[in-house]
């Protein structure tokens, strides 16, 4: 599996290209902006975009979606409960932050909790992880997870935005992140990648937090 990380858009949000070394097919995850740079990186790696996926629809994760869809023709995938957030993404960026981003097109397909996506030739489970945003999802594979803004190295997602809730976010982490093996690499939306074990041991927001069984 090829994983290429990029800092994209107005605040340098982490975006990812996940490619299959055999087929050279790829998914772009959380293209927060700078679509020409993403396209150039795909070309450099010899990959063809087969999907554009966002973990959630906040402005800093969706700024490059429209251009990437228009240029590549790849379908845009979004978790079903995040559609209302997507529909006001550009307007919200302008009102709340004074930032202009292109409004993404409607998703080509809505994703559902528990379904399996193939990314980089490997299966990833779609997991609904609300709290930072109502329809936030993580993509959890074997030893690798793309976690958006649920958890960071030494921190967790902010919960002072519309539709966010701190108790819900903590439950998402306890139910879906902490049960993963300690050596699972977490590719997040901001800052350096981390592991479940590191965050279990050192993240001050998780002190005393026990894993919860999935429903």
What does the model show?
The chain has 215 residues and is an alpha/beta fold. 26% of the residues lie in helices and 29% in strands. It has helices at residues 35-45, 59-62, 65-72, 83-87, 89-97, 166-177, 196-202; strands at residues 2-8, 13-19, 25-29, 48-53, 76-79, 109-111, 116-119, 122-128, 137-140, 144-148, 151-152, 155-156, 185-188, 194-195. The longest helix is centred in the last third of the chain and has 12 residues, at 166-177. 46% of the residues are buried.
Itemize the secondary structure elements and their pairings.
Layout: E1 2-8, E2 13-19, E3 25-29, H1 35-45, E4 48-53, H2 59-62, H3 65-72, E5 76-79, H4 83-87, H5 89-97, E6 109-111, E7 116-119, E8 122-128, E9 137-140, E10 144-148, E11 151-152, E12 155-156, H6 166-177, E13 185-188, E14 194-195, H7 196-202
Parallel strand pairs: 3-4, 4-5, 5-6, 10-13
Antiparallel strand pairs: 1-2, 2-3, 7-8, 8-9, 9-10, 11-12, 13-14
Q: Which value, in Å, is the CA radius of gyration?
A: 16 Å
- The coarse overall form would be globular
Mean pLDDT: 94
The total count of helices amounts to 7
Uncertain regions: pLDDT < 50 for 5+ in a row? Answer: none
Topology, number of strands: 14
The amount of beta strand, in percent, is 25-35%
Which bin fits the share of residues in helices? Answer: 25-40%
Listing every helix as H and every strand as E from the N terminus to the C terminus, the arrangement reads EEEHEHHEHHEEEEEEEHEEH
Strand order of the largest sheet: 1-2-3-4-5-6
């Amino acid at each position: 599996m090829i994983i290429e990380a990029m800092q994209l858009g107005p605040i340098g949000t982490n975006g990812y290209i996940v490619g299959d070394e055999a087929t050279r097919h790829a998914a772009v995850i959380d293209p927060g902006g700078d679509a020409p740079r993403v396209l150039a990186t795909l070309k450099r790696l010899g990959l063809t975009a087969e999907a554009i996926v966002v973990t959630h629809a906040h402005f800093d994760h969706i700024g490059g979606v429209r251009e990437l869809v228009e240029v590549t023709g790849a379908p845009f995938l979004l978790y079903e409960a995040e559609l209302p957030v997507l529909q006001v993404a550009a307007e919200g960026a302008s009102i709340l932050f004074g930032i202009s981003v292109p409004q993404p097109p409607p998703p080509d397909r809505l994703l559902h909790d528990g379904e399996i996506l193939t990314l980089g030739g490997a299966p990833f489970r779609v997991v609904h992880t609300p709290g930072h945003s109502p329809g936030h999802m993580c993509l959890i594979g074997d030893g690798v997870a793309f976690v958006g803004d649920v958890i960071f190295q030494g921190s967790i997602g902010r919960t002072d935005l519309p539709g966010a809730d701190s108790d819900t976010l903590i439950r998402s982490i306890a139910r879906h992140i902490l049960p993963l093996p300690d050596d699972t690499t977490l590719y997040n939306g901001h800052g350096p990648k981390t592991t479940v074990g590191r965050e279990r041991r050192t993240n001050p927001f998780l002190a005393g937090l026990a894993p919860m069984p999935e429903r």
